[in-house]
Amino acid sequence: MSVYSIPKSSYIVFTEFQNIKGNVVTSKGKKFEILGSTNIVAIYFNSTGNISLYTEESSPQACKLVHYRDFSPNCTKIITISGPRTYIMDGKYGENSCLVTAFSLGYIQTIEFGAMNSSYYGADGIDQYTFFKIFFFSAQYTNFTPLYPNENVSLKYEIKTTNEDRSLKYTIEDDSDYKAYYLTEKSFKKLRTGEDNTDIEMSTIIWMSCMIVVVILCIVGVVVLYVFLRKRRPAHSRHEDKEEPTQPTTNGESSQEKYSEPLVDNADQV
After folding, report:
1. Are 159 and 110 in contact (CB under 8 A)?
2. Would you say 203 and 197 are in contact if contact means Cβ atoms under 8 Å apart?
3. What is the tens place of the pLDDT at every residue in 211-223?
4. What pTM does this model have?
């Protein structure tokens, strides 16, 4: 078994992992299974942790990965591509879209459609800025956001690999077979890989918290109203104590019946 210490803000993408199994361990000692039957092949480390890799085969097995350092956590969604592929990713105004590639030997050709603010980073976390942003000869990731609302923008990636590259071909998006997860000190959850937020547990917690706040506010409002009415009631009672004995009125009604509505506002004038 091989164990590797992974720093915070790392994004690990496995490209060759046949017959390889593994675990990730949080800084708090919690262990989660990766690779194998889990199909978890990409992990973002939101805190420091360890990766342990092993095989049950009698002979050594190849295992390759791309380790992105200082990976931006501010992605609205992340699409991860291993191996060769042509892919077009649409951008939405106000969102920061991230496209990640992973391979060993090859190159990338990119084309930007529309006005956007984009950055290209190598695995070392350094901005791979070129004037035309066309060719890159190593794995990299891009984050981009449209500059103007109501404008359609997209980023095209054409990834080519050599015959010597054995990277498994897959794309992590929406409900794909392969998955990307993120690791914290205590948990291991699915990354946002599409328009919807797949972190359902967090959405449920937020919804329940909002409902609890609404219920508490309603209870407080009822209590305040009750106390307010209780404070006003003695003044009414004092007013009634000062009323003259009931006398018939010209239309046959008593003065108590005539002034059946409380006159609390005028109590001090009686």
Report:
1. no
2. yes
3. 676 667 778 777 7
4. 0.68
Specify whether the CB–CB gap between 220 and 106 falls below 8 A. no
Reading the block at residue 168, the tokens are 């498994």
Q: Where are the domains of the chain?
A: 2-198, 207-269
User: Got the DSSP string for the chain?
Assistant: -EEEEE-TTEEEEEEE-TT-EEEEEETTS-EEEEEGGG-EEEEEESS-EEEEEE--SSS----EEEEESS--S--SEEEEEESSEEEEEEE-TT--EEEEEE-SSEEEEEEEESSEEEEEEETTS-B---SS--EESS-EEEEEEESSTT--EEEEEEEEE-TT--PPPEEE-TT-SSEEEEE-SS-EEE---SSS---HHHHHHHHHHHHHHHHHHHHHHHHHHHHHHHHHHHHHHHHHHTPPPP-B-TTS-BHHHHT-S--GGGGGG-
Query: What six digits make up the tokens of 93?
Result: 């105004």
